[in-house]
Structure formats: structure tokens, C-alpha cells
Amino acid sequence: MSSLKIISLKVRGLRNAGKRKAIFSYLKNQKASIFCLQETFSTKDDEKIWTSEWGGKIIFSHGTENARGVCVMANPNSLFQVQSVEINLEGQFIVAKLDEDYSIVNIYASTD
């Protein structure tokens, strides 16, 4: 069984390239395997660019350009393999099974 360290962060939007670069740079300097981000404000159009900039696997559950959205990002050096993924279409949660040992749940629940 591999060691797993997870970081969870509410980012309040990553559509701004400068903010996304700063967040990705910060996360890459952390010694974690998996990163769970909430309030990404992502859309399907963002996937290819963000994945390229991150350099590793990203699982998205999109909200809108201005609300919701979560993602689970694997450290580019991580050896974990995604076995299955469940998302909801409103950008509020992701459930991902990694290898045989771990399941990751990333939830964004509004305070409203």
C-alpha cells in the first residue's frame, strides 16, 4: 500500500491564468499525492488547458464560469491509478476510487 497525503483547498475560481499558475505552482511544491479543489468555476472548455498546465491527471465536476465546480488532481509524479469516478453534473462532488486501497470524495456544499 502506498502512502497517501491529500490537500484540500477552496480556490474561488481558477479561470484567471495568473491565479491558476500561482495555485498550481504552490500545489506542486507541496508534498502531497492528491489535491482536492473546490469552487473551481470550471467548464468543459477549460479541461485541456488546465490539464496541460498541471502536467498530471485532473478529474473535473464542472459548475459554471462563476459558481461551483470541484476537481481532484493527482500529483504529476504520483503512481496512483484511477479505477472509477462518479461526478454530479452541478459541479458539487467527485467520488474517485484510486488503486485498490483508497477512495477520494471531494464535495463543495454552498453555505446558502
Key terms:
about 110 residues; about 35% strand; 2 helices; globular; single chain; alpha+beta; 3-stranded antiparallel beta sheet; Deoxyribonuclease I, Chain A; 4-stranded mixed beta sheet
Task: Summarize the topology.
Blueprint: E1 6-10, H1 17-28, E2 34-38, H2 47-54, E3 58-61, E4 70-74, E5 82-87, E6 93-98, E7 102-107
Parallel strand pairs: 1-2
Antiparallel strand pairs: 2-4, 3-4, 5-6, 6-7
Q: What is the strand tally?
A: 7
- Overall 3D shape: globular
CATH architecture call: 4-Layer Sandwich
Q: Mind describing the biggest β-sheet?
A: 4 strands, mixed
CATH C-level class is: Alpha Beta
| Proportion in helices | 10-25%
Distance between the termini: 40 Å
N-to-C order of helices and strands: EHEHEEEEE
Provide structural commentary.
With 112 residues, this protein is an alpha+beta fold. The protein has one domain: Deoxyribonuclease I, Chain A (4-Layer Sandwich). 18% of the residues lie in helices and 33% in strands. The protein contains two helices and seven strands. It has a four-stranded mixed beta sheet with strand order 1-2-4-3, with helices on one face. A three-stranded antiparallel beta sheet has the order 5-6-7, with no helix packed on it. Strand 5 and strand 6 form a beta hairpin. The longest helix is centred in the first third of the chain and has 12 residues. It is globular and about 35 Å long. The chain starts with 5 loop residues before the first strand and ends in a 5-residue tail after the last strand.
